[in-house]
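Extended Data, panel c. Modelled sequence:
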Amino acid sequence: MKLFSMPIFLIFALFLVSSAMDMSIIGYDITQTTTADTSASNWRTDEEVNAMYESWIVKHGKFYNTLGEKDNRFQIFKDNLKYIEEHNSGDHSYKLGLNKFSDLSIEEYRLGYTGAIPKGKSNKLKSDRYSPLSGDGDVLPDFVDWRCKGAVAAVKTQGQCGASWAFSAIGAVEGINQIVTGDLITLSEQQLIDCDTSNYGCDGGFITDAFDFIIKNGGIHSDKDYPYTAKDGKCDTSKKNTTLVSIDDYEYLLEESELALQKAVANQPISTGIDISSRDFMLYSSGIFSGVCGELVNHGVVVVGYGTENGKDYWVVRSSWGAEWGEEGYIRLERNIKQETGKCGITILASYPIKTSN
């Protein structure tokens, strides 16, 4: 499927038409992928792999229409399974596992789930609100998790709609609204998809343009009042008497640094984008992700915390692929690496909504 052609790149999550693909990524029991001897002479027989494949098909509700497609997918599944088991037999800070991506080649995954995403069209200036102070001016907590503070809603599922930009923006707005008002209200990504004409609905969009829409619209509806359909729709203007959650403004981080992002996350959940194009990301199951990824940001997410485990620093990142992907819908990315832009380009698009009163 071709990328949407635009002068400025968008956040995209493009999808293949095949019924064998969707965004409802479901994890697999990791014990099935950690005990095998993966040497060429001792790896699983085709009969063993086929039994796992048939079980996986049932588990994930897969159905292949094209003649020979099931056999072709089996070969890809087998290759991914071997890759998973080889990885998990090594000494790594994270584990891989079977999920609903497991019948996709890495090329298909990249085509169907990634796209380029620089900054939005807004002329908004960067802010020094969360810029690190010189010397010992900043004393930041060692551990932050906005889930524990009630500022993060349950992980959502975007389905076959390329609207990670909307889920990223809404997650940050839900967070700052709870911090200011004390109420966690789950908000409507669908309203952004249907009504924000500066973006492109299920074909992609800009996180900060979503913030712009919320400000100009006087707020955003709850997802109860304007529920998610996972497809483009006509803007429903009949909900004028329902409650709107508003924000006052939004800003970009002044600098693309992990220390600035840490300071920001210590104060609120932060919208950003990351590069999800690696095979290890595709098959991620648990642990602190330290695998290969670049800085071609292609998926909108929310950073909801950070911490350290066994001496390794990490970010807590919420995706929009359902609670059965990764660590209950989250991935922990390694933190404080050499690149200023952080793991998978996590600092490049960092932005946040501002709300000062109820």
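The mean pLDDT is 86. This feature is highlighted in the accompanying rendering.
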